[in-house]
Design goal:
The strands form 4 sheets. A 6-stranded antiparallel barrel has the order 1-2-3-6-5-4. It has 2 domains: 211 residues, Thrombin, subunit H, CATH 2.40.10.120; 98 residues, PDZ domain (Pdz3 Domain, Roll). It contains 6 helices and 20 strands. Helix content is 28%, strand content 34%. By secondary structure, it is α+β, with helices and mostly antiparallel strands. Strand 16 and strand 17 form a beta hairpin. Keywords: Hydrolase, Protease.
Length: 367
């Protein structure tokens, strides 16, 4: 026992003599050895993954080269010398450019800067307030047009790239994944009454609006339109290409998008109402407001009515109902099944409505 105690005291004495510096050196050497081993393992792992990582890097470079020359920076002089700025994408070599309405609205003049350095004046062909889209045109030669892709073919997790001019930094490209599809504008986060959106985590900032969201083939799958918050927070929205292309073609042809009109403000049916009246099957869209002397009011619809079907198609979502109404021929008669909550209880009825023309379906006038 005495021998053991003397040995311990000897070790303690030696430790005191060599001092804390040697102890720290021993500790750091051990830690460095472990770190060095981890670095070696990581290096070997990256070497194995290098071909696949190079493929991804190559894909990003090719996407940038494919769509980059088609992306433009849009500038609009404002009052007091201030200048607004956004992005757009050339979709026809004749000079047609798709962008957001909020990028060009209120412009006293527009000029577009191309990736080759040219700055060219632009004119507004037409706009669509319902989807926050605009088409502008420039007169120039040797323009490179991007191609439309199919946003319906996207799946959650698919890679996408955004190209634009955030904060005026031209030709910036970022990438991410598709986070969600069919986001509805009823959330109040984004513009557009007839709209649903692609959600991605691509870095989109002020100035990216109007620029393209592109897929792995370098084709347009969306038009970047909105973000959550004043700057990038990992949630951004793009108008799907299937919608944007359809609106572009209509605007190019007529200067506006023609839509049917009912004259109501549709909203989701409150959960409490569904429970109280046994409407938990998902059917029904609440009529929150009725426009005075609009088609709905003339047909007898009232605030508080619940639309169950539109032309025999079930109404389950305010945005989808708005799009169904918009797609209905102007002047035609639509059959609307409603449920009205009377004092005696809910009453169902079939109402016929003559579909009007949307107030948004007018040629663009500078404002």
């Amino acid at each position: 026992m005495l021998v053991v105690l003397l040995s311990v005291l000897s070790v303690v004495g030696i430790a005191r003599m060599v001092g804390p510096d040697m102890v720290r050196t021993f500790y750091y050497n051990a830690a460095y050895g472990k770190l060095d081993a981890e670095v070696d393992v990581a290096t070997q792992g990256l070497e194995k993954l290098k071909p696949r990582l190079e493929d991804f890097s190559l894909a990003s470079r090719l996407v940038a080269k494919r769509v980059g020359p088609s992306v433009v920076s849009i500038h609009k002089p404002g009052f007091g010398g201030e200048e607004g700025q956004g992005s757009g994408v050339i979709v026809d070599p004749e000079g047609y450019i798709v962008t957001n309405l909020h990028v060009v609205i209120g412009a006293r003049g527009l000029h577009v800067r191309l990736t080759d350095g040219r700055t060219i004046d632009a004119t507004i062909v037409g706009v669509d307030e319902g989807t926050d889209l605009a088409v502008i045109k420039i007169d120039a030669e040797n323009l490179v047009a991007a191609q439309w892709g199919d946003s319906d073919a996207l799946d959650l997790g698919d890679l996408v790239w955004a190209v634009g001019s955030p904060f005026g930094l031209d030709s910036s490209i970022t990438f991410g994944i598709v986070s969600a599809k069919e986001r509805r504008s009823s959330s109040g986060m984004v513009r557009g009454a007839y709209q649903e959106y692609l959600q991605s985590d691509v870095a989109v900032n002020p100035g990216n609006s109007g620029g393209p969201l592109v897929g792995i083939d370098g084709k347009i799958v969306g038009i970047n339109s909105a973000i959550v918050g004043p700057s990038y927070r990992g949630i951004s929205f793009a108008i799907p290409s299937t919608i944007a292309r359809e609106q572009y073609e209509a605007i190019r042809k007529d200067g506006f998008v023609e839509r049917g009109y009912l004259g109501v403000q549709p909203e989701p049916v409150p959960t409490a109402v569904r429970r109280k009246f046994g409407m938990e099957d998902g059917r029904g869209v609440l009529v929150a407001q009725v426009v005075q002397d609009g088609p709905a009011e003339r047909a007898g619809l009232q605030p508080g009515d619940i639309i169950l079907t539109w032309n025999d198609h079930q109404a389950t979502d305010p945005t989808l109902l708005s799009r169904a109404i918009a797609a209905t021929e102007i002047g035609s008669t639509a059959r609307v099944e409603i449920r009205r909550i009377e004092r005696s209880g809910p009453v169902e009825a079939m109402v016929e409505v003559e579909v009007g023309r949307s107030p948004l379906s007018v040629p663009f006038t500078r404002r």
